[in-house]
Amino acid sequence: MQIRNVAIVAHVDHGKTTLVDSLLWQSGTFRDNEDVAERVMDSMDLEREKGITIMAKNTAVRYTPSAGPLAGQEVKINIVDTPGHADFGGEVERTLRMVDGIMLLVDAAEGPLPQTRFVLSKALALGLEPIVVINKIDRQDARAEEVLNEVYDLFIDLDASEHQIEFPVIYAVARDGQCTTELGAELTDLRPILDAMVTTVPAPQGDPEAPLQVLVTDVKPDNFLGPIAIGRVVNGTIRQKQRVLLCKRDGEREPAQVTQLFVSEGLARVEAESAPAGEIILVAGMQGIGLGESIADADDPVPLAALSIDEPTLSMEFRINDSPFVGRDGKYVTSRNLRDRLMKEGEANLSLRIEETDSADKFIVFGRGELQMAILIEQMRREGYEFAVGMPQVITKETNGKLMEPYERATIDVAEEFMGVVIETLGTRRGMMVEMKNNGGGRVRLTFEIPARGLIGYRTEFLTDTKGTGLLTHIFDGYRPWAGNITHRATGAIVSDRQGKVTPYTIVNLQERGQLFVGPQDEVYNGMVVGENARDEDMEVNATKEKKLTNMRASGSDNFEKLNPPKRMSLEEAIEFIREDELIEITPTAMRIRKRHLDPHERKRATNARKAEA
């Protein structure tokens, strides 16, 4: 049987998971009366809530072409759905090693965006065969012809070979499961896309008779079978009960046995007696195998080169929670719990690196971006962990005696009326505009080169400046000389000076001084940040103060109708908000911003020490 291995790559929200849904339906994977959720490949709760793909996942459909050299023959197409956000680049890089071709999905209005560029550059470098699908051609602001030209420009810019540039183009409305090969022609079902996969993507090149070589690209825990290694058979044939060698990254080799072997059929894993070269498999019995390592023949081992991943550009401090409210609702609160969970994440996610510090209570996590960190924090919170995290820090390098820092290439799509304020704000954050393009319809696309530090804390300000209508995407663009000081936050914090419950009386008196994060009856403690001061210095307040009652004034004479609602921050907003001297306290049911030093005297000493260093 013929096999084709294809990865679907696209920017966030360009419709790739929706397209996979339609392909699964039209290939007969589901029964007509079967109840299937939308975006069936986004199986994690976080993926469904945020509407993005975080973990790469694979499925398989069977298709019989009606024309061409394989007409009448059944072809198995392994499809891998990849994340669209550059913060999850580790998922993308390992996924692309499993396939022979990619389907690049581009929005007919937005065109190629930075994350599209990131994934495509990796795919072209591996020599994968591309198919281009221009999706959402039914949008009112669709400009399919211009977008196709932008895609060609992108391929040329990324040094694609002449053969790669001659890609087939399909125009689609993935939501409706329809497409066409000619713009303006009548839309049909998705057969043209399946035909393109069969004819454009080459069959796997491996030799089924050669010694076994399997590249492991993922490891999933299973309560019954132990760790299940997911990977591609590069050469040879893997069989049930076969003796193999695990070839580790450090050169160590361990004997193992295939206890169970599975392949994908639709969304299910189906047990198989054997799997030939080119097949994507799931194999149990590989205790201790790591991502990017390989499984080889026990008698004639030929290990594959280990998978390499781009270096992280951002770090965050993870530490135990030492606030007065510690242990109220967390299941795992000790440093041992935190260490074990982080080390487990480091093994399962190649793009994260975990480092221990000289303190047993503190760990440094290195990763790709704020979103990747926020997803890890949210996953741990839902699992019952209680901990605190610090402000994101960029990872600097020294080259020829010069301090270098990571830069981002930011693409901003805004209405013309907001262009001035965006350019001005990014200018103060050391951003340099390198391109400005008017797409028509009153919107402008701006491209900036900016230090990664300059984008920390900017997203919320950007949405405010553009009244929620702007689009901001960015991607790592290399290391350049240190750009100098960048002001992170121009406002101070309102800090509680004691523990207790917030009173309406306090809020009435404090809300004129700044934006509050707490409401009546919320519990606070000494050193907890309860609001944002309009001025640039911190202000300590008694947030629990009650009105003194006398026989001259009644308790109900205050006008509490003027209470402003508190600002309840999301995790991403809190990560953007905090300064170096602040932490975010994370628990399963609450999230609080606090000062690193809860005691006011220690806080003052630390502030003076920082000023002296500066």
Explain how this protein is built.
The protein has 614 residues and is of the alpha+beta class. The protein contains 15 helices and 35 strands. An eight-stranded antiparallel sheet has the order 12-11-17-8-9-16-13-14, with no helix packed on it. The chain has a seven-stranded mixed sheet with strand order 2-3-1-4-5-6-7, sandwiched between helices. The model is unreliable at 30-56 and 84-89 (pLDDT under 50).
Model regions low in confidence, pLDDT < 50 over at least 5 residues: 30-56, 84-89
Helical content (DSSP H or I, runs of 4+) = 10-25%
Which structural class fits the helix and strand makeup?
alpha+beta
Shape: globular
Lateral strand order in the biggest sheet: 12-11-17-8-9-16-13-14
C-alpha-based Rg, rounded:
27 Å
Distance between the termini: 67 Å
Residue share in β-strands: 25-35%
Largest sheet: 8 strands, antiparallel
The number of distinct β-strands equals 35
**For the residues shown, what is the average pLDDT?**
83
- DSSP summary: helix tally: 15
Topology:
Elements: E1 2-10, H1 16-26, H2 45-50, E2 57-63, E3 75-81, H3 89-96, E4 101-107, H4 114-125, E5 129-135, H5 144-157, H6 162-165, E6 169-173, E7 178-180, H7 191-200, E8 213-220, E9 228-235, E10 238-239, E11 243-247, E12 253-257, E13 260-265, E14 268-271, E15 274-275, E16 280-284, E17 294-297, E18 314-320, H8 335-348, E19 353-356, E20 362-367, H9 370-382, E21 387-389, E22 393-394, E23 397-399, E24 402-415, H10 419-428, E25 432-440, E26 443-451, H11 452-455, H12 458-465, E27 471-481, E28 492-496, E29 500-501, H13 504-510, E30 514-516, E31 523-524, E32 529-533, E33 539-541, H14 571-577, E34 582-586, E35 591-595, H15 600-613
Parallel strand pairs: 1-3, 1-4, 4-5, 5-6, 28-33
Antiparallel strand pairs: 2-3, 6-7, 8-9, 8-17, 9-16, 10-15, 11-12, 11-17, 13-14, 13-16, 18-20, 18-21, 18-22, 19-20, 21-34, 23-24, 24-26, 24-27, 25-26, 28-32, 29-31, 30-32, 34-35
